[in-house]
Write a structure and sequence with these properties.
0% of the residues lie in helices and 46% in strands. By secondary structure, it is an all-beta fold. The strands form five sheets. Strands 9, 10, 11, 12 and 13 form a five-stranded antiparallel β-sheet that branches. A four-stranded antiparallel β-sheet has the order 1-2-3-4, with no helix packed on it.
């Protein structure tokens, strides 16, 4: 049974199972193709660059598997015990993990080799959520703030005071959309972090935002 959001990679559907194993199924027939052989405690949703599938495990290791064969291409051990869903863009994988003491770290990793390019730890020392990435910037939320980091070297471009829920952020046009811990939808200027508008919700939200046709 699926325990994470499914990911389509070519003619495969890939998902982490309730058995904490990565599974791949034929997109047309539903037949299991890779046999669920990687029992590595993989509870989060995977990401892909089209050739490799990336996922962080409860063993503190970021894994990369060949999408067509399931063979492990590389792994990167960390001190984290919990990973958010990873993001990948233009040859770099972004993985945030939280240690047992509640501190966390975002790593930028070469998607082909597993070599670390840079690391970022938030000054507020709280857990980081899943990253969102555009052509120049990595956006990531902690429990207290939203950080915009330069993709090249993790230098901080701006900080927004107001941490989020577990809901994922959405990038659309010039805006960054998120749901803060007080259940408010915020639209930020992604270049400056300035709040453009906000709407207070009447109920808690556990999922991310979606933007389509300007709505």
């Amino acid at each position: 049974m699926a325990n994470s959001a499914p990911l389509v990679v070519g003619d495969l559907v890939v998902a982490g199972g309730s058995d904490k194993t990565l599974h791949a199924f034929d997109v047309r027939t539903g037949a299991e193709r890779l046999g669920g052989s990687h029992r590595r405690q993989l509870p989060r949703s995977p990401s892909t660059d089209g050739s490799l599938v990336f996922i962080g495990g409860e063993d503190g290791v970021v894994h990369a598997f060949a999408a067509t064969t399931g063979k492990e291409a590389w792994n990167h051990p960390t001190s984290a015990g919990h990973f958010a869903t990873t993001a990948v863009r233009d040859g770099t994988l972004y993985a945030s993990g939280t240690q047992s003491d509640g501190t966390s770290e975002l790593s930028a990793i070469d998607a082909k080799t597993g070599a670390v390019r840079w690391r970022f730890s938030p000054p507020d020392r709280t857990g980081l959520r899943s990253p969102s990435v555009d052509t120049t910037t990595v956006y990531i939320e902690s429990q207290e703030h939203v950080y915009a980091l330069d993709r090249a070297d993790a230098s901080v471009r701006w900080v927004f005071d107001g941490g989020s829920t577990e809901a994922a952020m959405t990038i659309a046009g010039d805006n960054l959309y998120l749901i803060t811990r007080d259940e408010t939808i915020q639209a930020l200027d992604k270049a400056t972090g300035t709040a453009r508008w906000s709407v207070k919700l009447d109920a808690g939200v556990g999922v991310g935002t979606t933007v389509a046709d300007g709505l």
